[in-house]
Sequence to fold (159 residues):
Amino acid sequence: MDIKEFCRKLDHLLGSRDLHAGGLDTAVKAICQGLAIGTGEIAILLADEDTGALRFLWPRSLQTSGTRPISSKESLAARTYRDEKGTVNNRFSAIRHASVFEALPLKEQGGKALPIQKIISVPIREQENCLGVLQICRKAVDLTESGPDFTPAELLGAG
Fold:
């Protein structure tokens, strides 16, 4: 299945389920299966315009870890939200970035904290409104262990 077909099926699945009634787990598992990644390599952040911050919806274990200011210059998620533009970076560990998502040991990763080596970051939109950010990454001790590069087709399919 190509990435666009996968995304169409995922959109249909999400449209038919409430994210708070099991749909979130289903969506994350579908993304993981489609891209051969673990559940600890997905981040879904929702914007709270009242506080001017992004907060984690996924991983669930980071829901109470605080927020990321939308104005942050070092946060890829904040930049993705502000610019409403997706990006792929297959050398992410080599650039300066906010590291909340990778610095905490995640239950979804067996209690380990691993650095993000490669990442896709895309805005989550509902019609004309940007609601938040979806980040899909490959985490590993180093780049050589992180698996295949993300492709432009995967970025286009995710966005």
About this structure: DSSP finds five helices and six strands in the chain. The chain has a mean pLDDT of 80. The longest strand covers residues 116-126.
